[in-house]
Amino acid sequence: MESIQEHLKTDHRRCDGFFVEAEQLVADGNWQAAEEGFKTFHQAMEHHFTMEEEVLFPDFEEASGSPAGPSQVMRMEHQQIRELLGDMAQAMSEKDGDTFLGAAETLLILMQQHNAKEEQILYPMCDDLLGSKREEVLSRMEAVGES
Predict the structure, then answer these.
(1) Which of 37, 52, 79, 99 is most buried, with most CB under 10 Å away?
(2) Which CATH superfamily does the domain covering 4-143 fall into?
(3) Are 78 and 49 in contact (CB under 8 A)?
């Protein structure tokens, strides 16, 4: 059975791939494809955040007995990432490559740090605390955003 850590680490890599593609399309000045690529990346990130914020974090907080701690820090970082995504969306709509790529550079650093904390600290804690209901948690995360 796949662990929470493995599942979400794989999703991080999927999002990273979309990010790299969108960034390259902007750098190439291929705005039409870049808009689609950025939209795909942005949607993938929101889906990832929603899986964590609506399923994983509440379950983790319930199991740990506290809303404070690593999940609270991750929520704050999600907000910082969302702000950068907003800046990138604005730059995309203005076809402003320099602003987009500048925000992308900042986002890359933030995502690398954020993902490392989740993968090395939070996800292993979730696997430990939620181990007995791991399958159910993974199933509910996958169902997020489905109609």
Answers:
(1) 52
(2) nmb1532 protein domain like (1.20.120.520)
(3) yes
